[in-house]
Design goal:
Structural class: mainly alpha
Helix content: over 70%
Number of strands: 0
Number of helices: 9
Largest sheet: none
Amino acid sequence: MGCSLIPGLFGILVQGILFSVSIAVLVFKKYNEQRTSPMTARTWPVFLMDSSKQLAGAGWIHFLNLVVAKMFGEKFEGDGCNWYWINIVVDTTLGVLINFYLLKGLTLVFEAASGNTGMFESGDYKDDNGKVIKSRYFAQFAVWILVVSIMKCCMVLLMTVFHSELQKISSSVLDAVDSDANLELIVVMVLTPCCMNAFQLWVQDTFIKSKKKQAPMLPLEEAVPSWQHQQDDNELQRLAQE
């Protein structure tokens, strides 16, 4: 029996594992950020907004990958599992680089078109008073979905042009497990995506988050105005005289 990309309950289970690992990678990165840069680390609400864009984009690309893998499996050599594996590999390597430049370019375009209001500056959701502006989040959410969609179109074109070469690479990797459909499914839809998506999510988080540096928290003695220290000293002297 060949490998099937959507084999009922087993397929749902392994994809649930993939989703859980994706969340775990982002949460681990957040804790690492707090540990290494506590003064400039993102707040949890900002982190969740950043991560929601990535997870939504990943879900959308996962759906497209299933569709593309099925189409390529019918049109070219190899089955759906082979082509899903190829999709994952190209998306999480060359695709990450394309996402970086697309986000950078589209941000410049949309910012110029909107009068440089800051609405499309990735990861910047607040006004000067620190209040979250919902329209900024949704605008950036839409831009990110556009970014990953364009990237997927580029990858489909790449796979179409180099389908023979990519299929040979896929076969050389997956031939060792193609005798067991469940094992091949785990390699294709769990092991490979978990490793490659972890890399992708980690790298993309570095350029999705805001480039603005938060003001570091001052030590208590520096945060209290000097005149307050003088006032406290005067009060202590007065109490001592009484």
